[in-house]
Design goal:
Helices cover 44% and strands 11% of the residues. The chain is mostly helical and 501 residues long. It binds one RNA strand of 75 nucleotides through helix 4, strand 6, strand 7, helix 6 and strand 11.
RNA sequence: GCCUCUAUAGUCAAGCGGUCAAGACGUCGCCCUCUCACGGCGAAGACCAGGGUUCGAUUCCCUGUAGAGGUGCCA
């Protein structure tokens, strides 16, 4: 049988990284088996509808390279692929369940239920609907329906016995029916709840593997009861762990709460856009590479067989398996994300790097004044993500203020005094130099160092400081001087020397 | 509170009864070196606790603890 998987987000906001990873695994499993990957939009909650969110989903899947075979904007034989457009499909199935005694009409008002819920909570009990409407006579139900009274349809869960299902990752999961509530299947507005729609849609769309977030693990037994009631074969369930984030506990003023040891109290929570965690789009806009994000996210919660950890999407399509999925939530590690990205950046061709770096360099420099090609050679191994670039090169445009003790460096045997004399020598020498190529600068300065009989660091360290104003720079003194050009270099050298004497 | 799931270094994780308990990020040290990176070499660092089962448990079972999820006419 053809494998059919689906990614079924609700259009409530952005593509966060946990969602991206679920989509990724779902996509990979379909590809691995030569099956179909389907996009379905779950928009049955009209109140939470966010305009433009659906388009964001399309766009994100598109840039991620997760091409779906069926979906709202690409069509397919099992449409529509938007739940609100499938509205009329659900009621007949619900009525079928009513006929077979697996569901029933309920006329209880929200107010009555809220009260009961509050009361149960006060007593420290779990609220369960009391099945009041289950015991209504057929005639009464019909009469109230005819009178146009608002109603919902509830699942009739047995009072006793067990309900369970089999999950590829978690094995057999089973609960007592007594702990399960009679969930609403069809809401008063006529739309199905997720609890109902997922079963109907997955079945009618012939989904073979239901891969979805872990948050459905505890309600899956109820869904299986529904499959049984219909006499349908349940899909293969694969419940995926969420992506977590470590954060510090804050009080109502946003101040960190300190523990007994005086350290902020940490806790683990799901990645959240609202709490400032990056979304997929955020990472891309900061200059992370799609391939790096995909690679890292895949490995966060899944492990391949061997030692290799760099994979392209098409390699993953062959390699991916369900066995390597982990059971416990994993914490998103920005440092490792950065490392992966830096690694991908280093593997870029110089041309590609230049192309990607250019807009970021343009924010502070201009290509007419600076040799971008040379600059990029220096920058490539130092870039974790492109958004770092403006800060890294700003000193080339404007000479920063810096304290004179920058010149003092024990390891380089550089002191204020040695710097003054070295810089004087350098100034004298450089003023005579006309061939401002990097190699010539190197040759003449090294020659001078040799003739003075000093250590390289005693000349090169202060020289680099004097023309860059920074202790750390991408590249050394020769590279910086070359990039700045002759007149700017000499101007900076003079100014720095003046401040020193 | 109740229900479900999870538990190997700071993080991601391999392991699936017998291992000196892989590997990667991060950290630290050394080398390279005019700085920072890159690169090379090396180091420190883990089986949540207590009971079982077994000749032998990180691995299987139970209990506890901790964390996560659920407990919605949200998904």
């Amino acid at each position: 049988m053809e494998v059919r998987t689906r990614f079924a987000p609700s259009p409530t906001g952005y593509m966060h990284l946990g969602n991206l990873r679920s989509a990724l695994y779902t996509y990979l499993w379909a590809r691995k088996n030569g099956g179909k990957f389907i996009l379905r939009i779950e928009d049955t909650d009209q109140e939470r509808e966010v305009p433009g969110a659906v388009e964001k989903i399309y766009a994100s899947l598109n840039v991620a390279g997760l091409k779906y075979d069926e979906g709202p904007d690409v069509g397919g034989d099992y449409g529509p692929y938007v739940q609100s457009q499938r509205k009329d499909m659900y009621l007949p199935y619900a009525k079928q369940l009513i006929e077979s005694g697996h569901a029933y009409y309920c006329f209880c008002t929200k107010e009555r239920l809220d009260e009961a819920r509050a009361e149960a909570e006060k007593k420290g009990e779990t609220f369960k609907y009391d099945k009041k409407c289950l015991h209504l006579s057929k005639e009464e139900v019909q009469a109230r329906l005819d009178a146009g009274e608002p109603y919902v349809i509830r699942q009739n869960i047995p009072l006793e016995g067990k309900a369970g299902f089999d999950d590829v990752i978690y094995g057999h999961v089973e609960v007592d029916c007594a702990t399960l509530d009679d969930n609403v299947l069809i809401k008063a507005d006529g739309l199905p709840t997720y609890n109902f729609a997922n079963v109907i849609d997955d079945h009618t769309m012939c989904i073979t593997h239901v891969m979805r977030g872990n948050e459905y693990l505890s309600s899956a037994p109820k869904y299986n009861l529904l499959y049984e009631a219909f006499g349908w074969k349940p899909p293969v369930y694969v419940h995926l762990t969420p992506v977590m984030c470590r954060d510090v506990q804050k009080d109502e003023n946003g101040q960190p709460i300190l523990g007994e040891d005086g350290q902020p109290v940490e806790y683990v929570r799901k990645l959240s856009k609202r709490k400032g965690d990056p979304t997929f789009e955020d990472l891309l806009s900061r200059g992370y590479l799609v391939e790096a994000v995909i690679n890292y996210m895949t490995l966060l919660g899944w492990s391949p067989k061997g030692e290799e950890e760099f994979f392209s999407l098409s390699e993953l399509e062959k390699l991916f398996d369900l066995e390597g999925l982990s059971k416990s939530p994993s914490i998103f590690d920005m440092q490792k994300m950065n490392w992966f990205n830096a690694e991908y950046i280093r593997r870029l061709s110089p041309e590609k790097y230049l192309e990607m770096a250019r807009p970021w360099l343009d924010q502070v420099l201009s290509e007419e004044k600076f040799d971008y090609r040379r600059l990029c050679e220096l920058l490539q191994s130092r870039t974790e993500y492109f958004a770092q670039l403006p800060d890294m090169v700003r000193f080339l445009k404007d000479m920063p203020d810096f304290p004179n003790d920058f010149y003092v460096n024990k390891k380089q045997k550089s002191t204020l005094e040695s710097s003054v004399s070295a810089l004087k020598e350098a100034k004298e020498l450089l003023e005579t130099v006309t061939d401002w190529s990097e190699s010539n600068l190197h040759d003449v300065v090294m020659e001078k160092i040799a003739s003075l009989g000093i250590k390289n660091g005693q000349m090169l360290w202060p020289l680099r400081i004097a023309v860059s104003g920074q202790q750390n720079t991408p590249g050394g003194a020769f590279e910086i001087m070359y990039l700045l050009g002759r007149s700017e270099t000499l101007a900076r050298l003079n100014a720095s020397l003046e401040r020193l004497v």
